[in-house]
Predict the structure of N-acetylglucosaminyltransferase.
Amino acid sequence: MNSENIKSDQKKTFKRQNQLFSFILPINGDVANGVFTNLSQNVVNFGGFLKQEYVSFKANPKGKLVMFSTLLLLFGAAFLMFYLQPNFESFNTDRLATGFGKSFFIVTMTLLAFKVSLFLYSVYLYIKYKPIESVSDELLPICTVIVPAYNEGELVWHTLKSLADSDYPKEKLQILAIDDGSKDDTWEWILKAKDVLGDRLSIFKQPKNMGKRHALYRGFNVGTGDIFVTVDSDSIVKPDTLRNLVSPFVHNEDCGAVAGNVQVLNNEKALIPKMLNVSFVFSFEFVRSAESALGSVLCTPGALAAYRRDAVFNCLPEWINQTFMGKASDIGEDRAMTNMILQQGFKVLFQRNAYVLTNVPETYTGLYKMFIRWGRSNVRENLNMTNYIFKNFRKGSKFGTRLLFLDQSIKLVMAYPAVLFMIYFIVAQPLLFITASLFSILVLSSIQVLFYAKRYSLSESFWAYSYSLLYAFGLFWITPYAIITASKSGWLTRELTN
């Protein structure tokens, strides 16, 4: 990507950032700053909505065509679901006539009951959750922000600048940039940031590319703060992000780590980032809110996370020397750190008011490589959780952590049976399979659509349907593949692109 394209993208990025950060997100539907329009108001103002959609279509016809095609396909499946109901009844009757079919039905209904119950419990936890209020300058701890960078080019400059522009007390903020042996001009941009920021920024260069975990390890050992914050070098933070992120450590001495609220930076043109943005909002603002209410967020994201110094150094030797099946672990450093901090008995929380915008893959290849890396890490860390999850690892209730572990384990255990049933269903009744799959996507994705529509935008919320369609038919193989290749290493997405 040349410098002119980067600058053009950055202008759009900051426009998007200003739009996102120009208001306070409402909680439970309350209006903040008079900017947010809730779902019912959007429905009433349908004429304005259609006008907005027309303008949006002219600006991005390819994206809108994909979205409208998705809706047409899913609602067509809903009609077919009704029309083919006798065929579904016949298919189910034939299955229940066998012992295996009855057993399969019982297992399916049991898992469905568990998932529905867990979702309803998560809704309760989400309603119960409230972000912790930020504390005064006097109470804020000394904070070290670590930014590992590899082949990020100019993006690292914007990351460091956004951190330096934070309203965190300058005398309490240490920013470290660590170039992990980049092959492009990343180091030059770090040097430019150093020229502008002066003593507020300390810079380091690894002798060779050693991996993100080793770059963070160097930062942990160099940093002097009571709280460590890790930020990816392709991410932009809001001015009050750091303050909000570290405040839980002051309020709660049992807090060992805090996850930030990650949203998508590069979602102006590319379709995959548009889809991922809706998915990220649900994953963080709903799922992690519920996990935080249990004190058991399972993964603090690499894009933005904070750790108590003592919690880090209690597990740092184990973390840097972590292996899986005899091989050094060079992926999943964020999930591994979170797991080890949970094992110490600390709580891991989520701060919905600590925002970060981060770059995500724009191509199918980049997307599946990212998901493979996450999937392998998930397999490894769920296995590691078995070492402590049923022990007395924490004071007080451990029910929430164990419930989340059980949910993750079921997903892994059922990965292969689900694929086998899918193959059987396709061979036996291909039309019924397609219809049932599309109708399920319509029903289940509507939860994300409604959530995003209420929190942000009705029109953008429909990308949840397109993303679910992509995942169901284009990425279903990720978890089974990640399971059988869990021992493989490699970042997969860190090299330069042409």
The CA atoms of residues 157 and 189 lie 6 Å apart. Residues 143-408 form a domain with the Spore Coat Polysaccharide Biosynthesis Protein SpsA; Chain A fold (CATH 3.90.550.10). The longest strand covers residues 347-358. DSSP finds 20 helices and ten strands in the chain.
